[in-house]
Amino acid sequence: MVWNRDDLTAGLVFLGIGLFFAANTLGSLDVGTAASMGPGFFPLALCIILTLLGIGILVNARKHVDVTAEQVERPQLNWRAIFFVIVAPIAFGLMLRSLGLVAALAVTIGLAVAASSTIGVKRGLTIVIGMTAFCVVVFYYGLQVPVSLFNPTFFN
After folding, report:
1. Segment 97-116, tens digit of pLDDT
2. Among 9, 27, 54, 129, which residue's CB has the most CB atoms within a 10 Å radius?
């Protein structure tokens, strides 16, 4: 039996992550029902989607194997992008309460923009300002998420 190694690996990773977090969600959060959703309902829904995606990739891993095709050379990993994409949400989580939503968003989006080597400074600043303003309008004013926009007590 011949498998596409890339699809097999991706499918197993998605399946493992989905099942792991689904088990944690079921063990620690109240899921509730569709009419009365608990705090674990949305995370469990995402876990189910991720698990189904992993199963779908695993099914396709067997179907799309061309034994006669030449081995395609894989591009090198972009460590810069990997670093900044991992650091960005961590920075957001660490800064949200201490600095406020605007600063946390600006730094997080700036880190995400820094992951790309093709976005220049001018375009990057435009993205940071635009996305920060958009997120503030949607989450603070639209959805009324209970966070402070700025935290001036941090600087005292």
Report:
1. 889 999 999 999 999 999 99
2. 54
